[in-house]
Amino acid sequence: MAKPTTRFRSTLLLSVVALLACVPVASVAGSTSSTEPTSQSLHSDQHDVQAKRQLRSYSWEVVDADDNTTEERALEKFTTPVKNLAEKVKLKMTSDNQQATNKLFEKLNLGAVKSNVFESPQFQTWTTKVTKAYKKKPELGELAMVATLRANHDDDVVAGMITAAKDVSDTKTLADKLEEALLKTWAKDDETVDAVFKLLKLDQVKENLLQSPSLSIWAAYVTKLGKNADELLFAELKARYKTDEALASMLVSAKETSKTHLIAKRLEEIQLQNWLKDGKTAGDAFKILELNKDGNLFENTALITWVGYVRKLDKERSDKMMFAVLQAHFSDKDLARKIIVAKANSKTEGVAEGLELAQVKDWITKGMTTDKVFKILGLDNEGEKLLESPALRTLMTYFEELDRPRKTELLFSALKSRYDEAVLTTMIRTAMKSTSTRSLAQGLQGQLWLSNKVSADEAFKLLKLEREGTGILESPNLRIWISYVAKLSKNNKYDSTVINKLETSFGGDMKLARVLYSPDVKTNGVNVQILKEMQFKDWAYNKGVDPRELSKKKEFDLLEGKDLEHREA
Predict the structure, then answer these.
(1) Quick one: which H or E segment has residue 54?
(2) CB-based contacts of 38, cutoff 8 Å, min separation 6
(3) Is this prediction's pTM over 0.85?
(4) d(CA 523, CA 470)
(5) What is the pLDDT of residues 493-505, one digit of tens each?
(6) Domain-by-domain residue ranges, the chain?
(7) Nearest alpha-carbon partner for 347 in 390, 299, 309, 315
């Protein structure tokens, strides 16, 4: 028999293709053991793929078609009508692929699963079989699953399922993939941002829009389109809430919820930038945030928003600007006490300290007296517990701004005018027991001795330092005594009182020197280097001893002679 001509081959192939377009898929698929090539699936994209479907289980197997016959190669030379006919065949096969995915969904009765859909056994069976069917092109399988889900549920329900599944570790990976497929589907359908907003029924959410599970998917779609989701969402919220006050209040509340904290913070930043553009003052923002209506100012979560805005206005002058606004709403007494309470809270401590300093400077500018400050802070009512009062720190800030070097002296003067010596002594002793007030109490003790003209020797005995012997360096009272002696001898830089007492305690200058230069020397808050300097000056200026000669003596073998020579130089 003669070989068929090229025209005959082409005509024959065209007839086969035309028949395939009309034959049901079940007929085309035939037996699963057949090696005959079947029609091409749409989901195979640019690769020639053969699909076999087992109707009972609705599972698909995608197989590469490696053998290209002469007829298949000749297909490339077909005219446009023939190519269009082939595309119709391809579309029909694709439709059947999707139908198989849909039917399996129905067979497993997945539409009846109302909660935790992705975790249900039926859903896992469905996704496993569909994924296997599209193993060469998994992204097409994901698109098919999304199409089925959308055919059975509204988009907002599908989005809710996906969002819920993303919170579960076992289903998160699949949920991420289906979310991406959903976004691609919308993009392919040229859905606008507004259209998707409505598809997800976000336009119907009356309250707590930021808590809607579908919102994150909408934001992801907006971002996919290359737009700013936060800006668009803020515009939507601004239109809904009508006033700056209402919108600001909602955002402040949303920041307190873990699920909405981040997005609320971003939206709030947009709002603050808008306020800056509109020229809103610190006072304007204070009213918008309704801080003027709240007596518990520092407990109001909106305070942090206000502080952030004022710092954007002028970071260097923010404390002064905030104080000016607060001063218009609260009396000195009320504001001072609110600040004191706020300093005890780690969340507001930093802001409160800045406001405290601004208020103290304002008092000084106004020429406010110590008596007036005492009354504002309520310290007149503290009695013997005054040194334990939280308000005392504000008073000390006031004295520091007046005259920092004399702050303890100023405090002592104020206390002495209010308490007799017995009460004052008791207050100081009580304060010595607390680590938070010990340093202040030590300073006040020195001021009390100075007031009574107590000598260095008397103070030494009052502190019972003569009983310490060689353990004197580790006594907590030594530091108090040295500080007091420094006040007594402030005009004599070569005073030898401290060194002489220490040398007596250790049995001589060389024994004291060995201890001071020992690497194992221990003290209780006393600077050893300062004691070394004191002894050096005593040798050089009070006793007329040349340290270089001293270092040659046998008794000095354990000392660092070079250190002394270095000081002399």
Answers:
(1) strand 49-54
(2) 28, 29, 30, 50, 51, 52
(3) no
(4) 11
(5) 778 999 999 999 9
(6) 1-27+37-152
(7) 299
